[in-house]
Amino acid sequence: MKPILKKFYYWTAVTVTVLACGAMMAAAAGYLYLAPQLPSAETYKNVRLEAPLRIFTAEGRLIAEIGNRRNPLTYDQIPDAIRNAVIANEDPGFYFHSGVDIKGLLRGFYGFITGANLGGGSTITMQLAKNISFTDDNIYLRTFKKIPFALQIQRELTKEEILTLYLNLVHFGIGSDGIGAAAGLYYGKPASELSVAESAMMASLLPNPVNYNPINNPSLALSRRNSVLQKMYEQNLISEGELQAALMTPDTARRHYLSVEIPAAYVAEMVRQQLYEQYGEDTYTRGFEVVTSIDGDKQLAANAALINGLEEYYDRPHGYRASDINYPPDDRDPIGTWLEQLQSAPEYGNQLPGIVTAVQERSIEVILKDGVIIDISWEGLRWARPFISQNNAWPPPESAADVARIGDLVRVKRQGSDWALGQVPDIQAALVSVGTNTGEILALVGGYDFRLNQVNRAVTPRPPGSNFKPFVYAAALENGYTPASTINDAPLTRGNYRPNNFDDAFLGPVTLRYALKDSRNVPAVRLYDQLTSDVVLPFAARFGFKTENFPSDDLTVALGSQDVSPLEMAIAYSVFANGGYKVEPWLIREIKNLSDGVIFHANPIRVCDQCQLTSEEWEIPGPAAPRVLDARVAYIMNSMLRSVIEEGSGRRVQRELGRKDLMGKTGTTNGPQELWFSGFNREIATSVFVGFDQPKPLGESEQGATVAVPIWIDYMRAALAGTAERMMLRPDGLVDRLIDINTGKPAKPGESNTMFEFFRSEDAPALPEGQNPDRNNETDAEEPVSLETLF
Predict the structure, then answer these.
(1) H or E segment and range at residue 242
(2) What is d(CA 319, CA 448) in angstroms, rounded to the nearest whole number?
(3) Which of 189, 436, 533, 668 could be cross-linked to 552 through a Cys-Cys bond (beta carbons 3.0 to 4.6 Å apart)?
(4) Pick from 499, 495, 488, 492: which is nearest to 556 by CA?
């Protein structure tokens, strides 16, 4: 060998040796530097698979799921087709390498420096390492770290454990993490039911879930899927017959929304806020399952009652606010253009967006989002008198052209088996229903549609108007007044304040029962004036009203001028319903998650005749609710509020529901700007509020009885269906006296215009001279007069 060649080989060998040693030393130094930064084995052995917040009704029906979808699976629950598709596409040597594919890394590096696409060198184990940690590192440091980490994972976990963990953590796009969630989101089925073609589509997403998404980019996704199928065949993971069948299968991926059984977005938001205050961002990842107090059937009834009530009882009678959006027909493809415009139009309430495609003499045709063209006859159009103001909608339309033009973006809704023109109401409302024994929230709707406006009016204070009067009258009863006491319905002036009645008339002396039944304003103000705020405000505070914020020198408090929320009002009326006990509202019955089990279980205070009993529903007997009102006063208030239903502004309740166990009171504020009705039987108390978010007059003809009452009726009809009538039991210490209806004075049997009235024994009037004690006094009554026999 020539000396020069010998010298060349020598120095080449030295150089290679030095470089190899240097590389080994660099690798060792890098490992020693990175090793302390690698997560411990516990990090991935016991990795907590993130899961969303799920909210359920009391009987277990899904209300909402908040957070990225996850549905962790075991290895056996992941079908072979999924495992094979992912391995074929992401890491063909998965079962043979030690967590790091050296050839793949070198190939990827060479492709990087030459600009050629030779495939990546990252194994499934390395991808898992990246998913578990290093999220805050820059891309270069993360790449170096995941190599030793992958080697460490390989030593600690089996191949089956690695693949299972990877498929439960990897992101598949559009809010789905893990194959269990992705299968349901894209195909509406569990992962175990995915076909070979569908499994290949799932695997094809992994390099880039955004760009390769079959929903956003179906043509590219189909091409990617077919490439994965070819790889599966080349690696002998599927047969040629399976390959051909899968290639011929059209893709059916589409976004499958949550199978929400009970829509209750305002309830879900209340739960979310409550958990977020305690758990922060963990609320969306720890897999909390929250069971609420919501009764699913009652919630559905509340949703329907409020939506239909706003549309039918208020919005339609005030006229049609014609569409201000019009898409003129495109000469080339009008249908295609209209469908494109409709895709971004939201759905609100029970109404669908559509575009008018044709206008006949007395009908129109409307195309919906799904391309279906519906016909709306004159019966569904004739209501659409043009809106002029809250007090004026005129003239009635004479033809369909008076209502709509071709290209108008309109709202439509079902009307029986036909379709009708609709519109999204610009007014809002709230309905909240509670159990009177424990205060559990049975149903709650905070507005027409949460997607339209997220303000929860069920917990937003507004002036209740006459809905507050019963608490003034109850304060009077506790302080020696009786339903037969008279109060002067005559002009009253205090400074610049001069209250008036709704009918602008004065009746002179009237009984408290009559004044409340007829909702007379002046007697309520005069009664408040006589009692003084020093008596009424502390009394009302016992019902849960925040009277510390009420002015002490304002007589309008008697007429409900101070803000309260529908939830506060429902709980306050529960005191009358349950015989004088103050319960607290509550919504969350139980919280649990997979790792910790049950971490909270409600144990609310409850009415004393309930707390003595242990039932399967409660793990332990709850604390007793405090008594805040004399049971006798509560019973008398039941009877006075029953008068409102029998003879007053709530007559529609009795007319339509025909039950003897319902009591309640309307409320209408000046303008009118707010409409209320709160009512109850022994088991359920429900409050309804109606008004604009920015207060303004609702129209001269509107009262609590015109909108709030019918919404309340529609809900309570469903809520009480099939239940027996339940009224408060008569307590001891009451007597009945025959009185003159007009004067409230004791009367003799046989006299006209008389009725039996309830009195606390210490407040009962003396009997007329020569008259024996009535048959219903507290000591020798044989058949006490009940609410049912009184009216």
Answers:
(1) helix 240-247
(2) 18
(3) 533
(4) 499
d(CA 207, CA 439): 52
Contact 413, 420 (CB under 8 A): yes
Strand pairing partners for 432?
Answer: 444, 687
> Is the CB of residue 739 less than 8 Å from the CB of residue 486?
no
Q: ∠ at Cα 553 (549, 557), nearest 5°?
A: 65
| Known catalytic residue at 552 | no
Tokens of 485: 């006491």
* Peptide linkage before 395 cis (omega within 30 of 0): yes
Read off the DSSP letter of residue 730. Answer: P
85: region left, alpha or beta (phi > 0 left; psi from -120 to 50 alpha): alpha
Phi and psi for 320 in degrees, rounded to 5?
A: -105, 120
From residue 709, alpha-carbon distances to 102, 224, 467, 545 in Å are 76, 59, 12, 23
Q: What is the pLDDT of residue 785?
A: 46
Question: Tens of pLDDT along 692-709?
Answer: 999 999 999 999 999 999
User: What letter does residue 581 receive in the DSSP assignment?
Assistant: B
Strand, helix or coil for residue 177: strand
212: number of CA atoms within 13 Å, CB side? Answer: 19
CA distance 43 to 41: 5
Helix axes 80-90, 159-169, angle to 10 degrees: 90
How far apart are alpha carbons 158 and 153 in whole angstroms? 9
Q: CA 147, CA 38: separation in Å to the nearest integer?
A: 10
Question: What pTM value is reported for the model?
Answer: 0.85
Q: In the 8-state DSSP scheme, what is residue 400? A: G
Q: How far apart are CA 568 and CA 585, in angstroms?
A: 8
Q: Is the peptide bond before 218 cis (omega within 30 degrees of 0)?
A: no
pLDDT on residue 112: 47
Among this protein's residues, is 311 annotated catalytic? no
State percent of the chain over pLDDT 90: 74
Burial 533-546, CB ≥16 within 10 A → b, else e: bebbbebbebbbbe
Helices 3-34 and 139-156 cross at an angle (nearest 10°) of 80
Q: Which residues of 121-132 are buried (b: 16+ CB within 10 A; e: fewer)?
A: bbbbbbbbbbbb
Contact 385, 318 (CB under 8 A): no
DSSP sequence for 473-508: HHHHHHTT--TT-EEEES---BTTB----TTS---E
Q: Among 50, 90, 311, 440, which one carries the catalytic annotation?
A: 90
Backbone angles phi, psi at 312, to 5 degrees: -90, -40
Choice among 133, 176, 323, 466 that is catalytic: 466
22 pLDDT band, cuts 50/70/90, is low
